[in-house]
Amino acid sequence: MTLWNQLAALFSPTRRLVNDAEGRVAPGGLLGGSRWVVPRGDCQYRREDLRALPVRKRLQAARLAAIRHRPAPTALTCVAWTDGIAHFWFWDAPPELRADVEGRWLPETLLLKPPMTDGVRLVELVRGVEGQFWRGGVLAGSQWWDDVPGEEAWLRFARAAGLDPVGVAAQPEPVRLAWSAQPWGEVSLAQRLAGVFDEKLAWLLLFSALAAGLGWQLASLYRWQDAGTQLAARVERVRTEVNPLLAARERAETAQAELARLQALRPLADDYRLMAGVARHLPAGGVLLSWQREAGKLQVRLRSEQTDPRAFVAAFEGEPELSGVAVTPINGGVMQLVFELPVAKGSAQESNDE
Fold this sequence. Notes:
Layout: H1 3-10, E1 14-17, E2 25-26, E3 34-38, E4 43-49, H2 55-69, E5 76-82, E6 85-91, H3 95-101, E7 105-107, E8 119-124, E9 129-135, E10 138-145, H4 151-160, E11 175-176, E12 186-187, H5 189-194, H6 199-265, H7 271-280, E13 287-294, E14 297-303, H8 309-315, E15 325-330, E16 334-340, H9 345-353
């Protein structure tokens, strides 16, 4: 059994015969609900061929036809369709059953399987027999008797169905048919749902579904709003905690910039270190006579037996701070050394800006 058939069996309705002393029941699925089956002898059958009308107008035409054929204002109506042909069964239900069965009943004829070929047949029912005339696979005539009809009654049925009594074969023997799982005519969606639950329950379930959907939407909206409020509070709390850190960082960056500026003003070498460097590289017997420090320059005079400028240049060549030296001999063994001192980048930039 396919999944579709399993689902169809699960939702198939349980059918019970109305006013049946024997309590005959055709069991259905667990979720199929219940539907009443009315004996053919309690119903009146009518038929309307609406195939000439557009599809959109057939339903309204069927409603008007049902009103026209209804034997009594209180009679209940069941409509089944085969293509564009509407089949009507009218049942004047007892008042005590009307509230329970309205919209939840089917005529017995709808559950009897159609014949394989067209023609007339006699069907044995739970009460009485029914003569049927089928043409083109569609029920074209129906007549009920409480017992097997005589020849005259059978001929009248044939004439009413539009058949030539001369060409009609002898009256057939009644056949006994079991109820089908599905009616052979297409019933409306409202009638199908009525077999599962009544109209009040349907509206209750519909409103419950709408209320559940609305509640879910409102709950989701509330959660979003609450999450947004919590996020805003958290951001504000973090901002309050971070503001002192940001202010401290800004002060530290300002102090670091000021410290760099002050360090740039300090010369790269102080006089004591420069004097020690000069004394370390003097020739043997050399005497320091004078020391003069200017911006970016150092001028030194000394007395030495070594009067070759190249010797002094070579002596200070390996000293980073004193490598740029210009040597000038002066009378009396005096040598003048002028050093170009390195200047801090910040000071050089400030000098260029000025």
